[in-house]
Automatic annotation (TrEMBL):
<dbReference type="Pfam" id="PF01300">
    <property type="entry name" value="Sua5_yciO_yrdC"/>
</dbReference>
<dbReference type="InterPro" id="IPR050156">
    <property type="entry name" value="TC-AMP_synthase_SUA5"/>
</dbReference>
<dbReference type="InterPro" id="IPR038385">
    <property type="entry name" value="Sua5/YwlC_C"/>
</dbReference>
<dbReference type="InterPro" id="IPR006070">
    <property type="entry name" value="Sua5-like_dom"/>
</dbReference>
<comment type="function">
    <text>Required for the formation of a threonylcarbamoyl group on adenosine at position 37 (t(6)A37) in tRNAs that read codons beginning with adenine.</text>
</comment>
<keyword id="KW-0547">Nucleotide-binding</keyword>
<dbReference type="InterPro" id="IPR005145">
    <property type="entry name" value="Sua5_C"/>
</dbReference>
<dbReference type="InterPro" id="IPR010923">
    <property type="entry name" value="T(6)A37_SUA5"/>
</dbReference>
<comment type="similarity">
    <text>Belongs to the SUA5 family.</text>
</comment>
<keyword id="KW-0808">Transferase</keyword>
<keyword id="KW-0067">ATP-binding</keyword>
<keyword id="KW-0819">tRNA processing</keyword>
<feature type="domain" description="YrdC-like">
    <location>
        <begin position="3"/>
        <end position="190"/>
    </location>
</feature>
<keyword id="KW-0548">Nucleotidyltransferase</keyword>
<dbReference type="Pfam" id="PF03481">
    <property type="entry name" value="Sua5_C"/>
</dbReference>
<dbReference type="InterPro" id="IPR017945">
    <property type="entry name" value="DHBP_synth_RibB-like_a/b_dom"/>
</dbReference>
<keyword id="KW-0963">Cytoplasm</keyword>
Length: 324
């Protein structure tokens, strides 16, 4: 059921169940992060492999401190500047954070999301919420309550509707090495340029955020099938036009484009991410438009990369994974 009743959401969560929740980035599939049964339910509903750890959400820095052993100084600075907001920090976990939540890692991924409904929900709970994106593992992330209902509705008793997600791509993930040096593990809703203004130049290392990745099929969030539509998707460089030939007709092609349209493809088959050329619009529209693209009566999809700046970096990262 979709609704805006915070009490209903709270009751399901207190009973150990899972609930769809809005955040500024994407919708999450939330459960009690400290309750192993709830965490197992999240993994089961999402069909997510146990080696892929969850992000823990809470609503205050004091509550974050109850979950982590210490804050490297730069993490403290990032937390003060960016929370609530689309930034996840990897911090050493305290013992009472279940190994199931972190897939056995000794760090916990944690953030304070910037969404009024979910902040109010978190304030009313006496436990934090583990919440991966509320999509079946490997498919496109949800940015509306209806997206969640379409894919997980029969397995989730309640979906809290907070409207369409204003940022539209998942949080940026930052971890710290033993010297406390910050490193980016996932490009996301907090622009690299904004983060570097706080930390100085950042290394971006998106394939090794999880040591399990050594033997697992690539790092979490980094699986090649991630964000994938069901139909074959080919990337185009910014400004490139597809060469349609052979058995393919223009009518059987759909395209996701940045701000203009592509010649040779029917206008009805083209979705324009950012008509005014703003990469923030591209991020906000990305996942909803990928879903629409996937549902067009066509057999081959194209997607045009966007300018590689600000949230455009996260958009391009998701497009590359969707096409992989
Ligand atoms: O914006 C977001 O972050 C959304 C909303 C719901 O908050 N959540 C989200 O969760 O994107 P999910 O599960 O789809 O992605 C979490 C990523 C995964 O790639 C996971 O492997 C990584 O975070 N992660 C979680 N804990 C980690 C840890 N301790 N070390 C390294 N990576 C971790
Ligand atoms: Mg996800």
């Amino acid at each position: 059921m979709i609704g805006t009743d915070l009490n209903a959401a709270r009751h399901w969560l207190e009973a150990g169940n899972v609930v769809g929740i809005p955040t500024e980035t994407v919708y999450g599939l939330a459960g009690n992060a400290l309750n192993e049964e709830s965490v197992l339910t999240i993994f089961r509903v999402k069909n997510r492999p146990a080696f892929d750890p969850l992000i823990v959400h809470t609503d205050s820095l004091d509550k974050v401190r109850e979950l982590v052993r210490y804050f490297p100084p730069v993490a403290e600075q990032l937390a003060h500047t960016c929370w609530p907001g689309p930034l996840t920090l990897l911090l050493p976990k305290r013992d009472h954070v279940p190994d199931l939540t972190t897939s056995g890692l000794d760090t916990v991924a944690i953030r304070i999301p910037n969404h009024p409904l979910t902040l109010a929900l978190l304030q009313s709970l006496d436990f934090p919420l583990a919440a991966p994106s509320a999509n079946p593992f490997g498919y496109i992330s949800p940015t509306t309550a209806q997206h969640v209902a379409d894919q997980l509705g029969d397995q989730v008793p309640y979906i809290l509707d907070g409207g369409p997600c204003p940022v539209g791509v998942e949080s940026t993930i930052i971890g710290f090495d033993t010297d406390g040096q910050a490193m980016v593990y996932r490009l996301g809703g907090m622009a690299l340029e904004q983060l570097e203004a706080i930390t100085g130049p950042l290394r971006v290392q998106m394939s090794t955020s999880n040591p399990h990745a050594q033997n697992a099929p690539q790092a979490p969030g980094m699986l090649t099938s991630h964000y994938a539509p069901r139909k074959p998707l080919t990337l185009l460089a910014y400004g490139e036009t597809p060469s349609i030939s052979g058995t393919l007709s223009a009518e059987s092609v759909g395209a996701l484009v940045f701000s203009g349209t592509l010649p040779g493809i029917p206008a009805a088959n083209q979705l324009v991410l950012a008509p005014t050329g703003d990469v923030l619009d591209a991020a906000r529209n990305l996942f909803a438009y990928l879903r629409q693209l996937d549902n067009l009566p066509v057999t081959q999809l194209y997607a045009q990369l966007v300018p590689d700046e600000g949230l455009g970096r996260a958009v391009n990262d998701r497009l590359r994974r969707a096409a992989a």
